[in-house]
Amino acid sequence: MKEYFTAKKTLPILAGLAAGLYPVLFYYSRNFERAKSWDHVFHFVLFYIIFSVIAFTIVYRIFKIKSLVRYSKFALPFLNITVFLYFLKTFTFVHPERKIMVGILVVAVLFSYFLNKHFKKLLAFQFILAAIGLFNVLQLIYEKITYDDSWLEQPDAIEEVVFKKKPNVYFIEPDGYVSFSELKSDFYNVENSEFEGFLKQNNFKTYPDFRTNYKSTLASNSAAFSMKHHYHNFDADFEEVENARQIIISDNPVLNAFKNNGYETYFLSEKKYLLLNRPELGYHHSNIDYDDIQYLHNDMGPDELIVEPFSDYLNDGIDKPKFFFVEILKPWHIRTGKGNESGPEVVASERQKYIDRLRESNAMMTEMIQNILKKDPGALIMIMADHGGFVGLEYTRQANIKTQDPQIINSVFSAILTIHWPNNEIPSYDTELQSPVNVFRILLSYLSENETYLEHLQPDESFVAIQEGAPKGIYKYINDAREIVFEKQEPKNK
């Protein structure tokens, strides 16, 4: 092994491998959920490791040319440090670009000129870092392999449900849209009568006390589509849910029920957020092409067209009942991080931004609903948000600090639910529509005309990951009786 490490002919291979290996492992150790598909693995290995080795080997041979050989001792150290630091910058999304690049080049020049005789020590250090990164990644892989997903198991045979009614079903999810009653609260104080009137005129029934079970998109939708509570897997640090995107996009009892009953299924979204780790698409159609999803990302990317593709799918001529899941990333929520500014001015500014996005959301939904009802007056249209807008707080992570303030809790957990029932035939048990975890079980009961599925409704409770103000953990904030509580949750086997 020592001979291989010190042999000149293997030096460019080792230099290229060392430059790319640790940055890739570093990224995986901190962003495993974003990059756990085999597509990601192939991409990172190919572009950041194999291509590096090839490039280093080519450069090494070029500097063996007689006219360049005197510079050869500088070439690999310079290239290694430049590539290594550039990859780290890339994987950590550090800005500004120009200043960082100048700094990288300065370090590379200084090391390659003054310290090139220590190059093999540098490679050894990079491989030590890679070994540490590999250990961390292997720990994560072990956790994923041994993860217990038994919480997804259904208590009955609802996955084999047979529909007796087959209207087209449109699930429109405006991210962060609170209930109409919450919009009238002191925190929001939004005039929204035009949109509310439009819905009422078109025979939508609104459920004013509806609230979400979890405060994030992935956690809320995982519970909704699985029709089960996950309690954040009792992990306050991770806060989301294991395999959330796979549950929502690839395979869940709700999507399978529609497909098993002959429905053509469609997923449309303004953003690539639910597809970032490239889960297998369980829907028949989507407005997002996987070829357009970047392998490296630290945000949700540009907006995707949604109204136009939706209209196209609405009129695609497929002679089957249809199920649509349409995700509108508006009005969204206030800023995520604390930032450099705080105080009432920040709260007021974030509130105004929320209101502006709410108007855009209203306009989009109005156009879509008009198109639906013009073509499909017997449609089942459900508008349900994933969580609240967090207006009144300075940033969303503030919700991870313990509070018993009803205004804050309602701002986080309040969510819109309004439904256009086919032919205005509203089931008597629609009073059970209290939170997302039970909504689809109730809808499947309605479509199958089988109320026995209602015997296994989940508690309409809301949970939050607390990280400050109390021992870290998952806490119940709202109980089944709509009372604000503070009860730490533990796995049943503890």
TrEMBL record:
Record's keyword annotation contains Transport: no
Pfam families xref list: Sulfatase
Every Sulfatase N-terminal domain range: 204-392
Transmembrane segments: 12-29, 41-63, 75-94, 100-116, 123-142
Record key words, sorted: Membrane, Transmembrane, Transmembrane helix
Protein's UniProt name: Sulfatase N-terminal domain-containing protein
Organism: Cochleicola gelatinilyticus
